[in-house]
Amino acid sequence: MTTTVPQPPSATIRTSAKAVVLHEDQVLLTRAHWRDREYYFLPGGGQRPGESFGAAVRREVHEETGLTVTVDRLLWLREYIGAHHGEPDDGSETHRIEAIFLCTPASDPHQLGGHSQDDTQTGLEWVPLRKVPATDLLPQAIRQPLADLSPTPPAPDAYLGDVA
Questions:
Q1: pLDDT of 80 strictly over 80
Q2: By CB neighbour count within 10 A (0-12 exposed, 13-18 middle, 19+ buried), where does 41 fall?
Q3: Which pLDDT does position 32 carry in this prediction?
Q4: Cα-only R_g, the chain
Q5: What's the start-to-end Cα distance of the chain, in Å?
Q6: What total of structural domains would you count in the chain?
Q7: Alpha carbon distances (Å) from 146 to 3, 76, 159
Q8: 29 assigned to some structural domain
Q9: Inside any domain, residue 63
Q10: Deepest of 13, 54, 58, 122, by most Cβ within 10 A of its Cβ?
Q11: Which domain holds residue 50?
């Protein structure tokens, strides 16, 4: 007897790399108009086939903000399965995995302006870490951990990169 496992409506899992770019106790956020409201997001985006997470985050940050960044270390790995969070069960299920990296500017942090911003992006803003919990930053779950970051010695890197 063969047992079949039910398949989800979408077999696609989207991987992306996001950046926590810190400079002088501030974090760089993108501002976007999404679902009829203004929200803040971390810069970053989709990983391309054959591209490492580190390369993806550097490319995405440069495209969206104009900054060149150094990737310091992996902070968090976030998974989002839309069906678990009230998204409609219409066959367009969302399943994302986001690697969120701590980054520092390698170019002038005051010279902002990406050349390939997301369609919903309306701006860029350096936000003081202490103000992050009160912002409309999505995902909400990272507001406090982000605000708790400070210039303390970094933990060992948890991301080994594209290694054999």
A1: yes
A2: buried
A3: 87
A4: 17
A5: 39
A6: 1
A7: 44, 10, 18
A8: yes
A9: yes
A10: 58
A11: 14-106+120-147
- List the structure tokens of 115: 């050349």
In this prediction, residue 128 carries a pLDDT of 95
Give 35 or 126, the one with higher predicted confidence.
126
Report pLDDT digits (tens) over 95-112: 889 999 999 999 999 888
21 within domain boundaries: yes
Q: How far apart are CA 33 and CA 55, in angstroms?
A: 27
| 8 Å CB contact between 19 and 29 | no
- CA-based nearest residue to 29, from 108, 128, 140: 128
Mean pLDDT is lowest, of 35-44, 75-84, 107-116, 151-160, for 151-160
Give me the pLDDT at residue 19, please. Answer: 98
Which three-class secondary structure state does DSSP give residue 61? Answer: helix
134 occurs within a structural domain: yes
Query: Which CATH number fits the domain that encloses residue 98?
Result: 3.90.79.10
